[in-house]
Design a protein that fits this description.
The protein is built from two helices and three strands, in the order H-E-E-E-H. By secondary structure, the protein is of the alpha+beta class. It has one domain. It has a three-stranded antiparallel sheet with strand order 1-2-3. Helix 1 packs across helix 2. It is rod-shaped, with a radius of gyration of 22 Å. The two termini are 33 Å apart.
């Protein structure tokens, strides 16, 4: 049961971390273009931003996800990192509780 909670918490944390990473990468790409017209990609070509200037002077903007594979790989890596982190945290917490019980019995 405890391992299931660790896995669920790791998946939730990895989802949030992946969203934060994608948002940061997209904002970096968006504001680091220098006013260029055309298509730009970032995050291993997973996200794209395309701005096209029309004949009437307006600008058409397109953005989105072009390739899901890098996103899934990053999500899986985050899941593994958080599982290891939560397991280490639980081991240290158990050791701390054990040491407190030993001190209270002395």
């Amino acid at each position: 049961m405890k391992n299931l909670i660790v896995i669920i918490n790791s998946i939730i944390a990895a989802f949030v971390a992946t969203l934060i990473t994608l948002t940061g990468a997209f904002l970096y790409m968006l504001f680091n273009g220098g006013g260029e017209v055309g298509k730009r990609t970032i995050f291993f070509k997973a996200l794209f931003f395309d701005n096209v200037e029309k004949k009437d002077g307006t600008v058409k903007l397109n953005f989105g996800v072009e390739n899901f594979t890098p996103i899934i790989i990053v999500f899986a890596v985050y899941v593994v990192i958080f599982i290891v982190f939560f397991q280490i945290y639980n081991m240290l917490k158990n050791k701390q509780d054990q040491l407190r019980k030993e001190i209270n019995h002395l």
